[in-house]
């Protein structure tokens, strides 16, 4: 089984845009290897973050996130994978150091994961040239072997023909993953920015309570102005990739899962070459709880406009005005 030839699927999109919902729907297909343990992050292997052969892969394996232990339970197999991937000749190590610093810029992502524009090739101002350079660098880099070997191991451990991964920020590495995995498919979720921001604010308030706003929820604490720039940046990344590789990427509006669930899921299934019957929903258009489900927690449901009361009128106006052009292009009614 070769992961680079088995059409792995990556679900991505700006956080709080429905990536978990789509993951759970797709994970019903018996074709996929999908984590079936409860937990918000149990399906995030985030290989796009940790494909640098210069890092300590064993240390990443021991972390609570990404959930590599959940997908590769036998540590002996993983240790062998890490040993092989970390064995670099001096010339290859120098190449990887140069590419990491000047092209891939992993540090930029770790500092500001929401701003995909910060990941542009160092010193290159032409946005159209950046994807070409990143793809060329990926062909030269050992990163492609790390991705392929990891997904091979995952597929072998899970005894499944295809890999399904959901990690919102994968959109910032679409080009690199597409280069490493020629048969991979990508689903990019888009949701109305007012609903996204309201969902972020609500979740931050629920999770923080009396805690200091650091750690895993700090990314949700943005001003409306900063959020607008980040959301537009993510949208540009997803749409740009889909326009360059229309046969490998599709854009799905979160709202369509509520307005036309069967039609939308049929369209996704057709794009991914999945059997529609494996993704059947109930009469309300939501995942049928009687069918096999990847996680034991309650199924997320489509909701639109539910948390807008969390936002001030000023924040709503800032988001609507800042995203006005994009909203029109995506077919959202003006409000």
Helix/strand/pairing category:
alpha/beta
* Strand and helix order: EHEHHHHHHHEHEHHEHHHH
Q: Roughly how many Å apart are the termini? A: 50 Å
* Biggest sheet record: 5 strands, parallel
CATH class: Alpha Beta
Please give the number of β-strands.
5
Global geometry: globular
Question: Helical residue percent?
Answer: 40-55%
**Portion in beta strands:** 5-15%
Number of continuous helical runs: 15
Overall tally of domains: 1
- Kindly report the name of the CATH homologous superfamily: P-loop containing nucleotide triphosphate hydrolases
Radius of gyration: 20 Å
Q: What do we call the CATH topology? A: Rossmann fold
Order of strands across the main sheet? 2-3-1-4-5
- Rounded mean pLDDT is 83
**What's the CATH architecture name?**
3-Layer(aba) Sandwich
Low-confidence segments, given as residue ranges, are 289-299
Labels describing this entry:
alpha/beta; Rossmann fold; about 325 residues; about 45% helix
Descriptive notes:
Residues 289-299 have low confidence and may be disordered. The protein has one domain (3-329): P-loop containing nucleotide triphosphate hydrolases (Rossmann fold). Helix 7 runs parallel beside helix 9 (174-180), helix 8 (143-158) packs across helix 9 (174-180) and helix 11 (224-244) packs parallel to helix 14 (313-322). It contains 15 helices and five strands. It is α/β, with parallel strands linked by helices and 335 residues long. It has a five-stranded parallel sheet, sandwiched between helices. The protein has helices at residues 19-26, 57-62, 68-71, 75-86, 90-104, 106-111, 129-140, 143-158, 174-180, 193-208, 224-244, 256-259, 261-271, 313-322, 324-329, and strands spanning 9-13, 32-33, 162-166, 185-190, 249-253. It is 46% helix and 7% strand.
């Amino acid at each position: 089984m070769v992961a680079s030839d088995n059409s792995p699927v990556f679900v991505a999109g700006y956080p709080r845009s429905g990536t978990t919902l789509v993951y759970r729907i797709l994970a019903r297909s018996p074709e996929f290897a999908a984590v079936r343990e409860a937990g918000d992050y149990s399906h995030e292997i985030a290989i796009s973050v940790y494909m640098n052969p210069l890092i300590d892969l064993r240390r990443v394996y021991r972390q609570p996130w990404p959930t590599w232990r959940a997908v590769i339970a036998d540590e002996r197999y993983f240790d062998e994978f890490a040993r092989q991937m970390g064995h670099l000749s001096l010339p290859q190590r120098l190449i990887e150091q140069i590419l990491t610093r000047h092209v891939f810029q992993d540090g930029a992502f770790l500092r500001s994961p929401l701003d995909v524009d910060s990941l542009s090739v160092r010193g290159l101002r032409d946005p159209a040239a950046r994807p070409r350079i990143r793809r060329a660098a990926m062909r030269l880099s050992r990163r492609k072997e790390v991705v392929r070997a990891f997904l091979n191991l995952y597929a072998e451990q899970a005894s499944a023909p295809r890999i399904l991964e959901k990690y919102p920020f994968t959109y910032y590495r679409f080009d690199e993953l597409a280069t490493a995995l020629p048969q991979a498919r990508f689903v990019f979720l888009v949701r109305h920015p007012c609903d996204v921001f309201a969902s972020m604010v609500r979740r931050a308030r629920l999770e923080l309570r009396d805690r200091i706003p650091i750690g895993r929820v700090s990314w949700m604490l943005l001003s409306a102005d900063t959020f607008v720039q980040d959301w537009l940046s993510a949208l540009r990344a997803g749409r740009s990739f889909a326009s360059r590789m229309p046969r490998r990427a599709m854009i799905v509006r979160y709202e369509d899962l509520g307005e036309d669930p069967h039609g939308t899921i049929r369209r996704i299934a057709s794009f991914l070459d999945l059997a529609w019957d494996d993704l059947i929903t109930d009469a309300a258009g939501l995942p049928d709880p009687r069918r096999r489900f990847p996680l034991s927690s309650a199924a997320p449901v489509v909701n639109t406009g539910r948390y807008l009361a969390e936002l001030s009128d000023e924040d709503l106006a800032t988001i609507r005005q800042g995203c006005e052009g994009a909203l029109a292009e995506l077919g959202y009614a003006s409000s």
